[in-house]
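re: that chain from earlier
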Amino acid sequence: MLGDVLTSTIIADQLKIANPLALVDYVITAPAVALVKGHPSIETIIPVKKQDMETIGGIISLSRKLTHENYDIIIDAYGKNSSALLCFLTRAKQKLGYKKWFAPLVYTKSVKNKPDFKIDFKGTSLWSRLILTTLLDIKPDWNLQPAIYLSDKEHLNARKWLENAALNLNKPITMIGVLGSENSKTLPAEIMAQLLDFTVKTTKTQVLFNYIPSQKEQALAIYDLCNEATKKHIFIDHYPSSIRDFLSVLSHCTTIIGNEGGAINMAKALNIPTFSIFSPWIVKEAWNAGEDDTKHIAVHLRDYEPALYADRDYKNMKKNAAALYKKLTAVKMLPKLSLFLREHY
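^ sequence. v structure.
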């Protein structure tokens, strides 16, 4: 997952802070390489195909490659069965991970992934990465946050792309995360359209939709539900062709508004203000890194209907996501969205 890959880069940052001479390599799935390209704390990116981590043969092959590098330390930031098996098969002096049933068999040291709320940190997703570095007797900088690094050429190319798409760089540009990574993480189209109408009416911003070509029909469904005045501000046919191009365009946006997910995390790493809408079945506290109710604002159904969550398991609510989403109405979200727009436009 792109959010996991981006968030875990702070481990490399912390290792470099503790020892500037440390050499840090990063094993990630190939599509996520775009997020880490040019990162100053990472020497070598080792991309793998997703299917390679889903078969015993693929994991064994990768473990042999990693063993050949003679690593002193391996940190399993993913903590799943597949990454644990890779860690088990790869030779290294130290192997670090989370306390799980397999931890004594795999790691030389492990730690509980349970936040200490006496410490001021920026989000539990960041805590869970930095806590791994304490196994090396490092005192973490709990203020560390992920960052994405773009070249001057990429910034310039994005400006040209925006100008060719007839956007005015002297006026606000808003990226809208109209779709989540799956239907259960996507705000209903009619509610998203209402938020769009309010945003454009309030700010007169130019609007780009974040979607890929295969999702255009879904994006158009939201566009069609917007009022005519809003449609005039939406550049519906223009979208970056790659993740790296998207990042470059996003870096020129005033804000991003939309479904919580990878794009929101990317915006934070680019220091772009975010207004994120969490799926009702996702634990907000796990991924609301950096939320301060000013630059980064997040909304969740639980904020408005806490009784719905009394003694309930979030994951069991996934099958009812569509019904729960309908309770997260635009009317409920507008006060916070209004605050966000006043702050940044």
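The chain has 17 helices and ten strands.
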